[in-house]
Amino acid sequence: MKFESVTIKDIAKALNLSISTVSRALRGSYEISSETKKAVLEYAEKINYRPNPIALSLKERRTRAIGVVVSEIANNFFSQAINGIESIAYNRGYHVIITQSHESQERERVNVEHLAARGVDGLLVSLSSESADVSYLKELYEKGMPIVFFDRVSSEIETHTVVANNYWGSYHATEHLIYQEFKRIAHITSSPHLSITKERLDGYKDALAKHNIPLREELIKYCPHGGMKVPEVEEAINALMKAKQKPDAIFCAGDRLTMTCFGLLKRMKGKKEVGFTGFTNTAVGDLFAPALTVISQPAFEMGQTATEFLIQMIESRRPVTEFQNKVLETELIIRESSKKSVL
Known about the structure:
Elements: H1 8-15, H2 19-27, H3 34-46, H4 53-60, E1 65-70, H5 76-91, E2 95-100, H6 105-117, E3 122-125, H7 135-142, E4 147-150, E5 161-164, H8 166-179, E6 185-189, H9 195-210, E7 220-222, H10 230-241, E8 249-252, H11 255-266, E9 275-279, E10 293-296, H12 299-315, E11 325-328, E12 331-333
Parallel strand pairs: 1-2, 1-3, 3-4, 4-5, 5-11, 6-7, 6-8, 8-9, 9-10
Antiparallel strand pairs: 10-12
Helix pairs in contact: 1-2, 5-12, 8-9, 10-11
């Protein structure tokens, strides 16, 4: 028996529409009404229609592939963002190729060059903690490669960006610890040049200032690889806990940092003296002992929004000259770890 795949013609016949209308509806064209798009997409999903990538690439001179560059897929935030990316790309007929930098600028550059060589139609990029120089991305962008940044962004390339509200997330986390009567709040963060590091550090500083708590630079520790290298986090924690005036609370500014730091603190003496909160999108924060107080980011929605922006750039018939910086709100989830004498 010969396998017969579902085609656009089948959808057009079933809905009594022209083939061109169905094709434009599946591409999300502005020329098609929202009602028609909804009907076409719902029917396409019902009959499990999937575009033929080979036919599309030959017709449109595209590969229908999107390259994704992140630091680590196992990171709770990035795994959820990738789910968001794929949820949009898949329904729009795009294949997603995922690469990991492991916080290495060199690996990120190699990944970007490999994706470009494979002919991806565009790139979704969250910079590595080492990526102070983005010249290789600028060069590609200037040659016409659509690029959208999410989470960790660059101000050197004028394009769409999608970020969480890092400043207010950090501000609320720090202020929450202050309301719990902590006064010496340490801040463990990533590379100083990263956009998320700067924004979260500003939120931390401003929350202290509002409550007239002096900023102590010795309570701010940078881990250049964002928690992926455990010795860096150990060094930061040891420096804090061996000081004459130890912190009474610690606020971590990243997903991997939060998980690594929390695990190390659990194994240290004197741990009951330290309150704790951090940025992480783990779905099991309430299963830790004590349950984790966290700032959660809308990772899935960030991935979706970034992908929508990128596909718009890819499919635009004219050069895109107006860009958006989309900022999505974070959420403070209060649990036991931020209360006094709980760790």
